[in-house]
Amino acid sequence: MKTQELDQLETHLSEHIIGQEEAVKETAEILRIGEMGMAEKTRPKGSFLYLGATGVGKTELAVCFTRYLFGDDNLIRLDMSEFQHPDSIYQFLGTSERQGVFQQLLEKTNGQGTILFDEIEKAHPPILDLLLQILDNGRLTLTDGTILDLTAYYIVLTSNIASKAIVKARQQSGAALRRFVENQAQQILRPELFARIDSVQVFNKLTWENLQKIARKLMEQEVKRLKNAGFTFAETPKVENILLSNDWNLNLGVRPMKRMTHRYLCGQIRI
Ligand SMILES: Nc1ncnc2c1ncn2[C@@H]1O[C@H](COP(=O)(O)OP(=O)(O)O)[C@@H](O)[C@H]1O
Ligand SMILES: [Mg+2]
Predict the structure, then answer these.
(1) Which amino acid residue places its CA nearest to atom 14 of ligand 1?
(2) What's the whole-number average pLDDT of the chain?
(3) pTM confidence score
């Protein structure tokens, strides 16, 4: 990675992730340390825990920085809701007969990238214990004794753990909300896990201004994409049709607005 590209990293991330300035800044700082080779060599290049309500950009930030640094193929995304059952540990680590999901995915990368453990609160707890080893030594020991080296990867954990409480909290952001969410999370996740993470970030609740900005960008981007694909519209799509037509519940994050935009654009396409 060239220094110039690294200099642009924070700007790039803040153009894509709206209303999460602090999480973006902190993340960019740790990525710079990692990319400049200054992280401890015996641990992952950097580790993050992203906490917050649903649909506020946690997963998207991990996707966005990975794409920027390593391209599309180097993100390993593990949806932890798929590892809820006690047998999930074998699915994850493999057995003597069968390769596990983790190794399969790791082999698809070019030896570096990001490992995203998405919505960790949903995982069968022993799977979370594997994270201790990963974060401590940058290694993972599989069922058959194979040791995977993860020191060239970033580790991102996301959780909606305190979602309900965040929604109820009066603060949109700031130190008080942060303390509150971290406290909630520490009651559910192990303190050892917290102690090993380089950066714990609490994502803000989105404001109406944030949602409008995201809606405009999304509309622009999707209209461009559809036009490039050869579609034409009955009339010029207007973002106001989305923003004015609904009593948006900001507690639900961006997803409902995104769904509505897609439905609206489909309806506008001239067939
Ligand atoms: N702060 C944000 N800035 C820009 N887009 C966002 C933001 N938050 C959410 N989105 C959009 O909404 C979708 C869902 O966000 P995601 O990051 O998956 O939510 P979560 O916080 O639940 O992980 C993403 O695809 C992204 O396009
Ligand atoms: Mg997510």
Answers:
(1) 55
(2) 92
(3) 0.94
